[in-house]
From TrEMBL:
Species this chain originates from: Microvirga aerophila
Entry keyword RNA-binding: no
GO molecular function: acyltransferase activity, transferring groups other than amino-acyl groups
Domain Acyltransferase: 15-347
Gene Ontology CC: one annotated term: membrane
Residue ranges constituting the SGNH domain according to the UniProt record: 442-684
Matching Pfam families: Acyl_transf_3 (PF01757), SGNH (PF19040)
Gene Ontology biological process terms from the UniProt entry: lipopolysaccharide biosynthetic process
Name by which UniProt lists this protein: Acyltransferase
InterPro entries per record: Acyl_transf_3_dom, Acyltransferase_3, SGNH
UniProt KW keywords: Acyltransferase, Membrane, Transferase, Transmembrane, Transmembrane helix
Segments traversing the membrane: 12-34, 40-63, 83-102, 148-168, 175-194, 239-258, 264-283, 303-325, 331-349, 369-389
Length: 700
């Protein structure tokens, strides 16, 4: 095996490169702290991409070994020593803090997966598959979101050495390598341009539409190296070069200020990429441009540039953890978050990055051993992060994580008399959604299933009743079919949500088609949904005025008329088959999410400020149009009734999200595990009446 110390000299140091890195990382940091301060700051990542392509080419261009294997081990050992140590430490610490402080929820649903993928340089795939736009506010609550750019670089490095190998051979090999780099650059640029319009989320996160940015840095290095001997230095040429470099730097700064998320990454990223290429072309091997070198090479910028990798790694999880706990909306937490990010970055740079990257003892380890050891550490680190995530309910500081049966509706309480008896669902896929089939399993005294079944169609608000459905399936020996697809309600009386969304209509049509093949006379179709506008979501407060504009007025009335017509046309055929249709009355909605405010470390978060009490009179007014719509449906569809949980959830003049110290709601509008327990007797009575099983239930 070859040693890392005898293949190539340490690359020459260029202070202006660290100056550019500093501008890039500071722009990203400011954007992530508060986007409006620097609306285009996110393109700092694209500046990093170009720099990385250029620097990695310069660092291995002097490779002196022979053979593909020597070159590959040399390259990958260097990259792993540069990237892996600080990344793994950051991911593990973030996994611990996430497990301690961030409870499971829809808002955090992608966090664990993204973190585990990040160990292997694949987090951009997890983020792209989630469908959550980088610019959506929900992205700000995933402490691993920023690793997408590292994943792009790591995936680029899987291809780069095969494009660059011929360059190290000299002669015609250099022309061949440049041609390969240019070809892949153009292909990636074209793909990115098309993908930015056709599928912006995938275009933003995935490597094929970003490859060209790193390749541009590589090609620039090759062009500079090829033409450096023919450049004739003169005062006039230096002046032109200096002007070009200054304009290029201004292009980068302008991109930080004005870049927008539309038409991104291509063509939106072009000013930042072209500007970075221009600055490097102007300054590389041109010390006579003293003003530009002095500007980008000043001590402060260079220092930030040197710690830029660790600062990029640490700033984002620090900001996200502040958002989950204290908040990041006011001056003091922002100052503290920045200070903590710098402290952690300095510690990482001093005690992790530099010792492993430049340590003399480690430089003598064979390249193959460096690669194997790095992969082993990555694997062990990912397993450690998974163990932390799987045991979050034991380790967490959060009362939400430690008491899942109180907070989460899918966690059913254990039957002390028959602990093995459960109704965990059988899962099937219907047009991209799920069909969950609940029926009793493992019970000591098996009983014959009821001849009639209950069917449910809806989104997360239907599944917020999962605990209740499981308990009913067990206690009444009834099979329950639940068709669900996140974000796709059914008869919510808000047509923008369940009529005008093509994806949801496709799923709903498929679910109805499957349901029609199963329904029998005497069955029940239960239709829960969020039918009031939200006052808040898990990450933001909307306010009452926005809710009023959605609920009242000519446009809202017209929308409900459309929804009523759809409901009548859809439900009439089902009812005529002898199926009992039960609509869920509108539940209370609240202005703050209880699960975000349940602990000492998050109660002061600004998301909690609106409180957990809403006047009943206000909600009565919001409910009235929905109840009137129910009446119109019942007048045209036989055997339609309403099960209304509202009186139980709001028995007094003020509706409360908490009762007797326990949450009735997980967030501003989803029922909690405790809420399910409270509503179970009422739901049981309502379903028993429709299924006609009073006497059978009493006989048991």
């Amino acid at each position: 095996m070859l040693l890392s110390s005898n293949l190539a000299p340490r690359a020459q140091y260029y202070p202006y490169i660290d100056g550019l890195r500093a501008l890039a990382v500071l722009s990203v940091l400011i954007y992530h702290l508060h986007g409006p301060w620097l609306p285009g700051g996110f393109v700092g990542v694209d500046v990093f991409f170009v720099i990385s392509g250029f620097v990695v080419s310069a660092s291995i261009a002097s490779f002196k070994g022979q053979g593909i294997w020597q070159f590959l081990t040399f390259f990958y050992a260097r990259r792993l020593r540069r990237i892996a140590p600080a990344l793994i430490v950051c991911l593990l610490v973030t996994a611990v803090l996430t497990g301690l402080l961030i409870p499971p929820s829809w808002l955090s649903a992608e966090n664990q997966k993204t973190g585990l993928y990040a160990f292997f340089g694949l987090s951009n795939f997890a983020l792209a598959k989630s469908g959550r736009d980088y610019f959506a506010p929900t992205t700000d609550f995933n402490p691993y979101t920023h690793t997408w750019s590292l994943a792009v670089e790591e995936q680029f490095y899987l291809v780069f050495p095969f494009l660059f190998l011929a360059w190290t051979r000299g002669g015609r090999g250099r022309a061949l390598s440049a041609a390969l780099v240019a070809g892949t650059l153009l292909a990636s640029l074209g793909w990115g341009w098309w993908q930015s319009q056709a599928s912006p989320v995938q275009a933003y996160f995935l490597t094929p539409s970003r490859f060209w940015e790193l390749a541009a840095g590589v090609l620039l290095y090759q062009l500079i190296s090829h033409s450096s001997q023919r450049i004739i230095s003169s005062k006039h040429a230096s002046g032109v070069r200096g002007i070009f470099g200054a304009v290029s730097l201004l292009s980068i700064l302008a991109a930080f200020a004005v870049s927008a998320s539309t038409r991104f990454p291509v063509p939106g990223v072009l000013p930042a990429v072209i500007g970075t290429l221009g600055v490097i072309w102007s300054l590389h091997h041109h010390p006579e441009l003293k003003r530009l070198h002095g500007l980008l090479g000043n001590r402060s910028l260079v220092f930030v540039g040197r710690i830029s990798y660790s600062l990029y790694l640490w700033h984002w999880p620090v900001f996200v953890l502040f958002r989950w706990t204290w908040g990041l909306e006011s001056l003091l937490p922002r100052v503290l978050a920045i200070a903590l990010a710098f402290v952690l970055a300095l510690a990482s740079w001093r005690f992790v990055e530099n010792p492993i990257r430049y340590g003399r003892g480690l430089s003598r380890i064979p390249q193959g051993a460096v690669i194997a050891g790095s992969l082993l550490v990555v694997t062990v680190g990912s397993l450690g992060a998974k163990v932390i995530a799987d045991n979050q309910h034991r380790l967490s500081f959060s009362t939400v994580s430690r008491n899942p049966e109180i907070w989460y509706p899918h966690v059913s309480p254990t039957n002390v008399e028959d602990p093995d008896c459960n109704a965990e669902p059988e899962r099937q896929t219907i047009a991209g959604g799920r069909l969950l089939i609940y029926s009793p399993k493992g019970c000591v005294q098996p009983r014959q299933l009821s001849n009639s079944s209950i069917y449910v169609i809806g989104d997360s608000h239907a599944m917020a009743y999962e605990g209740l459905l499981k308990q009913y399936a067990i206690h009444r020996t009834t099979r329950i079919y639940a068709y669900t697809n996140g974000g796709c309600p059914f008869i919510s009386l808000q047509p923008s949500r369940d009529l005008d969304d093509a994806r949801c209509r496709h799923y709903t049509d498929a679910a109805l088609s499957d349901l029609q093949t199963r329904l029998r006379p005497g069955d029940v179709l239960f239709l829960p949904s969020l039918r009031l506008p939200r006052f808040s979501d898990q990450w933001i407060y909307f306010g009452q005025e926005q809710a009023r504009s959605q609920m009242f007025g000519a446009r809202a009335d017209a929308g409900r008329r459309r929804s009523v017509a759809f409901a009548v046309a859809t439900l009439r055929d089902i009812a005529q088959r002898g199926v009992h249709i039960v609509l869920e009355g509108p539940k209370p909605v609240f202005e703050a999410p209880p699960f975000r405010c349940a602990d000492w470390f998050n109660r002061a978060n600004p998301i909690c400020a609106p409180g957990f009490s809403v006047p009943r009179s206000l909600l009565d007014a919001f409910r009235q149009p929905v109840l009137q719509a129910f009446e119109r449906i019942a007048q045209q569809v036989p055997d339609v009734s309403v099960w209304d949980p509202y009186p139980l959830l709001c028995p007094e003049e003020q509706c409360q999200a908490w009762r007797d110290g326990q949450p009735l709601f997980l967030d501003g509008d989803h029922i909690s595990g405790s809420g399910n327990k409270l509503l179970l007797p009422s739901f049981t009575e309502a379903m028993d009446a429709r299924l006609g099983i009073h006497s059978r239930a009493a006989g048991r």
